[in-house]
Each structure stands twice: as structure tokens, then as C-alpha cells.
Amino acid sequence: MICPFRFLERRQIFVDALHLLTLHEPGNELHVVPEVTIPGGSVDYFLVSARNGKPLDFVGIELQTLDTTGTVWPARQRFLQSVKAKAPLSASAADRPFGMNWKMTAKTSLLQLHHEVETFEHLSKRLVLVLQDCLLEYMQGEFTLGHLSDPKVGHAMHVHAYKLDMTSEGLRLGLVKRLSTDAAGVATVLGLQAQARVELESILAAIEERLSAQTLWSPV
């Protein structure tokens, strides 16, 4: 999977993270806020429980899809030509290869988590890494992930792996595996020590500025 928007199908990834909003109460509103900046980077989405326009709890959600090497355009044109579609392709680009950059994707993802997860742990909040099952399998083969356990709500770092299944209605995204660990566990994978620190109020203020009718999550 290359396009991260595929993960937004039916907003299932947010439904699957609801249990990590440990301070959520009936009557609170749910918001999905994109691209909130914290020390160490920008988190793709925050799932937020709010009341009267004030965020009371949040879960960070990072999407990790596969990067590619080379350019996919010549392969696209060759496919179109194979099905007799009109697809101009220059001779210089005809044999240009492309592929999945498994190693760089995995390394980049783990390094980004290293910079972010200790911040969440310091705040007693949760960060969820959303990825495809095949990428998780690759990471388990290339990195030391054996210490990641069955999911515990108290852990700061959660991994949600999804699979695309073919159904009568087409491809459908489904959660197939969950793991979790703490900040020390993420550092162990890379042999590093996370150092990010930030006050809870600064993140809550950044979220509050972004809450609006557009971020409000309606189940309909």
C-alpha cells in the first residue's frame, strides 16, 4: 500500500483507537484533527475527546505506508500499453525500474517513533502506528521486535496492523494484529534513547486551536 488515504476507509482506524481515549466520557464530542506538531515531528492525526470546545483527551495516530524507489510512471505506461490503451512512453524511460523501499520505510518509521513516543509516555497518552500487515511482518524480520507484547492500554506505543481483503464489494480494510510497548521498548529496537519532553498544556493548546466544525467526527 502506497497511498495513505486508503487507511481512512470508513474511518476504521479511528474506531479501533477509541478505547485508548481513557478519559473520554458520554457527552463529549469526538474530533479528528490532522497534522498536529509536537517535539520530534508532526503527528498525522489526533483523535480527540472534547467538551465545550476544550480537548480533554487525545490519541496520536501515525500512518505508515510504503515508499518506492525509482519512478512508477514507466511501469504505469507499460501496463496501459499491455491492455491496448494509448500510453506514450519514451525509449529512455521504457526500462526504468521501480520497487518498494522496504528498508528505508521501516527505518524512517521507527526513527520517527523514537522522537515522538517518549513525549506521549511523559504525558500518559497513547500513540498508534497504523501500517499494513506485510510491512509489520518485514519489520519483525529485520528488527528486534520480540519484546512488543499483546496490547496493554497503559503502554504509550501501540501498533495496529491492517490487511486488505477482497470482498464482494471490493477491497476492504480490516484490523488483523495489535501490539504495544513503552518508550524504552521503541528505543530498544533502534538502540537509542528518546529525549523529547513537553508540557501537556502546550499540546492541548495546539489541539484546541485546530478544533472546528470541520474536525468534528460524525458517525453518519
What can you see in these coordinates?
By secondary structure, this protein is of the alpha/beta class. 29% of the residues lie in helices and 31% in strands. The chain contains six helices and eight strands; from the N terminus they run αββββαβαβαββαα. The protein has helices spanning 12-15, 73-82, 102-122, 133-142, 183-190, 200-210, and strands spanning 29-38, 41-51, 54-64, 68-70, 98-100, 126-132, 157-167, 170-181. The strands form two sheets. It has a six-stranded mixed β-sheet with strand order 1-2-3-6-7-8. It has a two-stranded antiparallel ribbon with strand order 4-5. Helix 3 packs antiparallel against helix 5. The radius of gyration is 20 Å and the shape is globular. The two termini are 27 Å apart.
